[in-house]
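Subject: Sanity check before I submit

Could someone independently write out the structure tokens for this chain? I want to compare against mine line by line before I put it in a report. The sequence has 226 residues.
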Amino acid sequence: ENGVDTANVLTDDSLPTGNATIIVDDEGENRIVLIAGANDSLRPGHVDRALELEPGWDAILLQLEIPLETACHAIAAASAREIPVILDAGPPMEVPLDRLRGVTVLSPNESETEALTGIRPDDLASASRAATILEESTGAREVVLKLGERGALFKGDGEWELIESHQVEVVDTTAAGDSFTAALAIEYSRGAGIRQAIARALAAGALAVTRLGAQPSLPTAEEVDR
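---
Independent answer below. Compare away.
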């Protein structure tokens, strides 16, 4: 109904659909209990078949709710084909950073940054240290830290910079990071610079937190434009 191409969607009759149970507190912050289900069935061979079917993918957008082996294979396979890879590094987990080599844009949130680097990005100095580790260890062209209500950290003109977030009434933070990274990936794939891509991503994330739910809170392109 939303115009998403489902040609590569697979069914595993032995496992249920993945499920995320989300608890939201009075401040709009969330905790998520994830049951991976059929997500765990996605294998490197499935990635290869999708890449072979369509040689002209604009980019690959990944996260880590699939087997790590599959995610790392997708990064390597796309890099070999010179397809940009945008990685939303959630949920939080410890991953050897050299396994992420080949990623183009690496975008963890605060807890994911801490899991990957051991550094909690509580201020500009600590966030910059963490981002430097991610940049040097993965070779990512762009590292974008999602810092919630503080905004997003990126490297502009050789220095780490913070772009502040929009001030909105927070109802539910669920899917804020998903909205952010989706908008970032689309804008970046269109050839926009990272600063412009982040500006659009921040608008999408801000819209998402003003609504209850995950998929229902995702904004349309027209809403982000406005």
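---
OP: Matches mine. For the report I'm noting this point. The mean pLDDT is 94.
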